[in-house]
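[Meeting: bench + compute handoff]

Bench side (C.D.) handed over the final construct sequence. Compute side (W.E.) agreed to return the predicted structure before the next meeting so the bench team could plan truncations. Sequence as handed over:
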Amino acid sequence: MDLSKVTPYPMPDEAALPPSSEAWTVEPGRAALLILGMQPQFLRSFPATAAPGGDLLANTAALRREARARRVPVVFGHAPGAGPDPDDPLVPERGDHVITYVRENAFLRSHLRRALALTGRDQLLLCGLFAAGGVLLTAADARMHGIQPFVAADAVADVGPEDHALAIRWTAARWGVVRTTRTLIHEMAGP
């Protein structure tokens, strides 16, 4: 992937989201939050002062705060050789899980599935990088293994709006539920 070709674009809002193929809602006692690929070497291509970088960071941080407040496990997924770094905008905190995955799919050769099973979680909220890569493939694998995937459409990003839209469209049509950060936070908070 050529990160020098990142094109600025606005994040989708609720009105821009395609209808999801499933009618699931987030249940904090069943959910885990997976933050994918948010390491400095990737984030440098998504400046926090321009779209979609600023929204990506702010919305991911908001999801993490709400997850921690609701005792929803938080998992950080890192590419090989890209573990936690003190310069990361979102550094794992005490109690967060950290996995290393070898391909775009965070389940491949990682302990993600086992971590979800051990904590009794069968819903996975996904955010981070890259929408048409790791996010889409992880959502598909989750669904194939009986885990309900939810993608935060405005807390994922890719090299351009076309890749972002493709991931959102495919996830909504085939793999799971696509929502905005605000809606997912509202669902986590409950009635």
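W.E. noted at the follow-up: Strands lie at 31-36, 74-78, 97-100, 123-129, 148-157, 177-179. C.D. will use this when planning the next construct.
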